[in-house]
Amino acid sequence: MTKPFHLFFSLIIIIILPTIIHSQSQSAPNDAAVMQALKTNLTPKSLDWSDPNPCNWKQIQCSRDNRVTWIQLRNQNLQGTLPRTLNTLTELQVLELQNNQLTGPLPSLSGLTQLQILLLSYNNFTSIPSGFFTGMSSLKHVYLDYVTFSSWVLPETLKSASSLQVFSATSANITGTIPDFFGGDYFSKLTTLHLGFNSLEGGLPNSFFGSSIQSLRLNGQNSRSKLNGTLDVLESMIQLTEVWLHGNMFTGTLPDFSALNDLQTFSVRDNSLIGPVPESLTELRSLKVVNLTNNMFQGPKPSFGKSVEVDISGRNSFCLPDPGVGCDDRVNKLLAVVESVGYPQVFAENWKGNDPCEPWLGIKCSASGNITVVNLQGMGLTGCISPDFAAIKSLQRLLLADNNLSGMIPDELKDLPILIELDVSYNQLYGRVPEFKQSVKVRTDGNVDIEKDGPSTTPVSPAGGQKGGDRGGGGKTGVVVGLVVGGLVVVAGVCVLYTRKRKRASGVHPRHSTSDGDGVKITVAGSSTTGGPSDIHVVEAGNMVISIQVLRDVTNNFSQDNILGKGGFGTVYKGELHDGTKIAVKRMESGVMSEKGLDEFKSEIAVLTKVKT
Ligand SMILES: *[C@@H]1O[C@H](CO)[C@@H](O)[C@H](O)[C@H]1NC(C)=O
Ligand SMILES: *[C@@H]1O[C@H](CO)[C@@H](O)[C@H](O)[C@H]1NC(C)=O
Ligand SMILES: *[C@@H]1O[C@H](CO)[C@@H](O)[C@H](O)[C@H]1NC(C)=O
Ligand SMILES: *[C@@H]1O[C@H](CO)[C@@H](O)[C@H](O)[C@H]1NC(C)=O
Ligand SMILES: *[C@@H]1O[C@H](CO)[C@@H](O)[C@H](O)[C@H]1NC(C)=O
Ligand SMILES: *[C@@H]1O[C@H](CO)[C@@H](O)[C@H](O)[C@H]1NC(C)=O
């Protein structure tokens, strides 16, 4: 009979044990005091909080050692303020107070190292202290939506919440910029970032590069300048499923979506986006909802799959109203030539419809409807002269004076059959002028470096002659090189194509080596901002000077097969130098590259370096 007895006994234990703990336990004295203060402040009428032991209160849970772990008071119509001592409930894991009418300042919760869930949405708190998030290293879910705070900025202390998965603060009166720590560096598990309807300004932070964010809502900022800048960084955020950026002032072209295979919702209506809608978006299989209404997109109206809910009404500059119908050949050619200057807004605003001979701004045509004059003088164009001008065979006058065009004059232009005038004076062009026919009047004055042959100051050794022996780690060394193509920059993106024709040999010249950690060399793109034509040919990568020609060679002319990945500002290619050094080349083709942009790019390279190691 011993067996059944044992069985019975152990059953009893299992059932009784929790009861014993509950009825005999008293919450830890300090926790009890805090809970009493909470009770006094909130006077919850609908809940039975009469027991002297808060661990027995409704909606409260304690640990076995009587510490308060859960407070779940949502939808209780509670009024009043939270006690300042709340952050002494150091075992608290869950704090749910959403949808009440709590007022007064939110006390600091700094030090609640166990808190995982913080739900405070829909309340009337008046302020949030800047040290609020200090030390909350377990925090996973934060909801502060529709809290009537006075304005606040997202504090640096939020960085300590390294377990963060969801941060949602829609309409919470947040001002300032999106801090540059919302990304993999600090929040490797972040999947949801909802900051719509605040007063944020500035651009998408560089830290978004490669982040794990899936749902990104930054729509409808109320600040005067709203969120601005380009969407380039999105192309590296390959986990994205939902993107709400509508109602801001984003500019530039849409990025490359080919790596965003999970993207379902893409809403960028009511911005100032330009250029054609890329096929990488229209061809995305995962796409379900897309809203492009009220931008300045150009080119053919995009055609999405049947199952995609599309809104592209309102202001846009598509050539034709019907989706998927190609533009007039002349329109395509003109859009091609403004690509290399980043599709300036002036053309998005003035080149409408499908007939450039209407005429469009800067365009003149013959009676037969052929483009004869392209006059883009003094339009503040930055970038390079597109070789695609050569496709406009009817062109007689190409006038590009008084801009900020850099790079070389494309050789292709000399093939224009009936060209009579080319005026590129007062730009920042350099290099050899193609040999135009006698009949062509060519003006190149006001370009300081015209007819000068590339970099004069930078030491460059002959092709393949990288004196690699003095480089630490030799062939095993990994180098991350950022090829800055643009401002400098854009320029090189296209203009660099023409450096190939240059006779001067190019190569790699390591100056001295620095090794970071385990033999991985870290270099930062350093096509310097000091200007000068040398930038276009040569990338100074930390301690190396590498000619773009070499980068071109080792990446197999930036071939598809060499693509390692796509980043916020361009595509990363792998390559191997002659001495076996493996390099990653990041080719940036964003529009105008400001100094700040260059800094961001550099820090991105730094991030990239970390990732690769
Ligand atoms: C809380 O805010 C809501 C909406 O702003 C308002 O209707 C309500 O009266 C406020 N309650 C208190 C107690 O201030
Ligand atoms: C945001 O905060 C400012 C003051 O900090 C206040 O004047 C304004 O009313 C708040 N806005 C909202 C929508 O609550
Ligand atoms: C974005 O807006 C800020 C002001 O909030 C301004 O200083 C900055 O120049 C703008 N950037 C761009 C790229 O327009
Ligand atoms: C797209 O944007 C327009 C204009 O802002 C809006 O009226 C429409 O409801 C949106 N469509 C979708 C499918 O979200
Ligand atoms: C000019 O237009 C006519 C027809 O409109 C076309 O046949 C001819 O090839 C064009 N000329 C050039 C130089 O493009
Ligand atoms: C051309 O670019 C330089 C810097 O690259 C800038 O200082 C200058 O203001 C620009 N000029 C025009 C006309 O945009």
From TrEMBL:
Its main location: membrane. InterPro entries: Auxin_Ser/Thr_Kinase, Kinase-like_dom_sf, Leu-rich_rpt, Leu-rich_rpt_typical-subtyp, LRR_dom_sf, LRR_N_plant-typ, Prot_kinase_dom, Protein_kinase_ATP_BS. It is a single-pass membrane protein. Residues 1-23 form the signal peptide. It comes from the Eukaryota. This is Protein kinase domain-containing protein. Residues 444-473 are annotated as: Disordered. GO terms for cellular component: membrane. One of its GO terms (molecular function) is transmembrane receptor protein serine/threonine kinase activity. The keyword Cell cycle does not apply. Keywords: ATP-binding, Glycoprotein, Leucine-rich repeat, Membrane, Nucleotide-binding, Receptor, Repeat, Signal, Transferase, Transmembrane, Transmembrane helix. Residues 558-613 form the Protein kinase domain. SMART domains: LRR_TYP. ATP binds at K586. It is found in: Membrane. It comes from Helianthus annuus (Common sunflower). One of its GO terms (biological process) is signal transduction. Residues 444-454 have a biased composition (Basic and acidic residues). The chain crosses the membrane at residues 479-499. It holds the Pfam family LRR_8.
